[in-house]
Amino acid sequence: MGRFKPINSIHKWLRTSSPEALFDRQLVWIALGLMLIGLVMVTSASFPISSRLTDQPFHFMFRHALFLLLALITSSVILQIPMQRWSQYSSALLSASFVLLVVVLVIGKSVNGASRWIPLGLFNLQPAEIAKLSLFIFMSGYLVRKQDEVRETFFGGFIKPILVFMALAVLLLLQPDLGTVVVMLVTLFGMLFIAGAKLSQFLALMVAGIMVIVGLIAAEPYRIRRVTSFLDPWDDPFGSGYQLTQSLMAFGRGEWFGQGLGNSIQKLEYLPEAHTDFVFAVVGEELGFVGVVLILMLIFSLVLKAAFIGKKAFEHDHQFGGYLALSIGIWFAFQTLVNVGAAAGMVPTKGLTLPLISYGGSSLIVMSVAVSILLRIDHECRVERVRQLEEMTDEE
Predict the structure, then answer these.
(1) Which residue range is the domain that position 178 belongs to?
(2) HSE-up of 163 (CA within 13 Å, CB side)?
(3) Distance between CA 305 and CA 301 in Å, rounded?
(4) Could you read off the pLDDT of 285-305 as tens digits, one per residue?
(5) Is residue 13 in some structural domain?
(6) Any idea what DSSP says for residue 275?
(7) CA separation for the pair 32, 29 (Å, rounded)
(8) How high does pLDDT run on average in the chain?
(9) Do the domain assignments include residue 1?
(10) Which of 269, 325, 275, 294 is nearest to 38 (CA)?
(11) pTM for the predicted model, two decimal places
(12) How many CA atoms lie within 13 A of 121 on its CB side?
């Protein structure tokens, strides 16, 4: 009978249901899946440029793997921080973001004419990524404290967060970084709408925001070229439309099932920024339509998770967590839309990363922190539910 003990143990393990976890395991696997896909695709897309720049084909792969390790370590620390602490120190976090945005203008590293990075040796810190999350954390706390004012008054409650955003926007535009400003503005609109701002105020602000963005585009020749090349990239395929035409050719070569992992032609330094802003084009070429759809489904699942966690937080009267979870969902959804849209020629290029996939230390770490915050919000809701069930049992 001893020979059957391992078989009986395995059979018992398979038949026994797992205990209820106090965290969202599906969200963990979705995030880890996206990170793993990102590591594989960055390795594939960066192979040629890494060989040319460093004589080491896996240079960017090793750096991205290091960023992943830092992101996981940081996330494990963030998971231990109660949401009450985020709400308590939201103003301090926003102030630190302002300081970093000023510092990057003074000593920042310039790449392609933009000063967006603070060199830290191990990697270059991009304060704009921290500013996104800190603004959403600050706004979540503000909407909890001033919810009635936001719904009833314009100058009292509605305009104050807009003034904070405008101050951040000025510092970001000096870098310049219009893409981050647009992401922050859209997410801010979504948060104010969820908070119950009057429709007339919301529409007026949206029209004003669109007019300002159009004005900013018209004020800079390189932004005008981006828009004109986006509208008709084939008009100047070797000039202003070069990056987009190469991206479209990558998608065209991918067809249904792709050319196979590692078999991209466009990544052979035909497509600029193949491992960063345009990694999705390499995904389309190597994995095809099926691979593109699967990755988008994973990101869409993460966004849905954020929405459901936000809804659950509101149901448990965790207003701060509810607003913050929904803001993270809007942020991830819109940034994905812009990145994928730029690669597919649906929107002008904005230089935004694909969440948890594109190469970039600051973006990967900050977005991993955002996922950890989602897990913490969900965890606190589950703990509250268990506590309520125990109280009901004791009363009976």
Answers:
(1) 24-395
(2) 8
(3) 6
(4) 888 888 899 999 999 999 999
(5) no
(6) T
(7) 5
(8) 81
(9) no
(10) 275
(11) 0.86
(12) 0
Q: Are strands 109-111 and 124-125 parallel, antiparallel or unpaired?
A: unpaired
Digit-coded pLDDT (tens) for 67-113: 999 999 999 999 999 999 998 998 899 999 999 888 888 876 666 55
Q: Is residue 11 part of a domain?
A: no
108 phi and psi, to 5 degrees?
A: -65, 155
**Which residues make Cβ contacts (< 8 Å) with residue 386, sequence separation at least 6?**
22
Question: What are the residues facing 118 on neighbouring strands?
Answer: 125
Domains identified in the chain, total number: 1
Instruction: Give me the count of residues in the chain.
Output: 396
For 14-24, the pLDDT digits (tens) are 565 445 667 78
Distances (CA, A) of 103 to 97, 127, 138, 278, 292: 10, 9, 21, 28, 38
CA distance 359 to 217: 26
Find the largest Cα–Cα distance for the chain. 82
Q: Tell me the sheet residues that pair with 125.
A: 118
- Check if the beta carbon of residue 259 is closer than 8 Å to that of residue 253: yes
In this structure, the number of other CB atoms found within 10 A of the CB of residue 121 comes to 5
Cα–Cα dist 177/309, whole Å: 30
d(CA 270, CA 185): 33
274, part of any domain: yes
In order of 312, 321, 384, the CA distances from 391 in angstroms are: 20, 23, 11
- The angle formed by the CA atoms of residues 331, 336 and 337, to the nearest 5 degrees, is 100
What is the amino acid identity at position 37?
A: I
The candidate with the shortest Cα–Cα distance to 119, out of 104, 105, 98, 97, is: 104
Compute the chain's Rg from CA coordinates: 23
> What is the predicted pLDDT for the residue at 335?
92
Token readout for 84 is 């009450």
Bridge partners, residue 117, by sequence: 109
